[in-house]
Task: inverse folding
């Protein structure tokens, strides 16, 4: 599979094709190398705390910022749920200034 991004105004285009095992295509190098740019993205973020009481107790007992940061780095993934969804992706043509905004990544 491949994805082609083509400017209707000037014909500038980039083709995203898989380059690795697992069919991963590199977006930014291909787009920037073809005089296009990802100008803007918008995300919807939601974080929910699902902490165990030991987690809260340990944070409450921390006396320094460093203790809090160290504990959070070690334990945050086990005590929160995070969901990030892309809501908009804008691609601009550097040659003529035209652009497209991709939206509705979900139903």
Result:
């Amino acid at each position: 599979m491949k994805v082609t991004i083509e400017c209707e105004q000037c014909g500038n285009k980039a083709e995203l094709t898989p380059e690795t095992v697992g069919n991963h295509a590199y977006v930014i190098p291909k787009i920037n190398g073809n005089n296009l740019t990802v100008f803007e993205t918008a995300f919807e973020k939601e974080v929910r705390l699902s902490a165990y009481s030991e987690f809260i107790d340990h944070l409450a007992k921390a006396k320094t910022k460093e203790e809090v940061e160290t504990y959070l780095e070690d334990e945050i993934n086990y005590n929160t749920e995070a969901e990030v969804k892309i809501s908009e992706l804008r691609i601009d043509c550097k040659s003529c200034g035209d652009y497209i905004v991709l939206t509705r990544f979900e139903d």
Observations:
- The chain is about 30% helix and 40% strand.
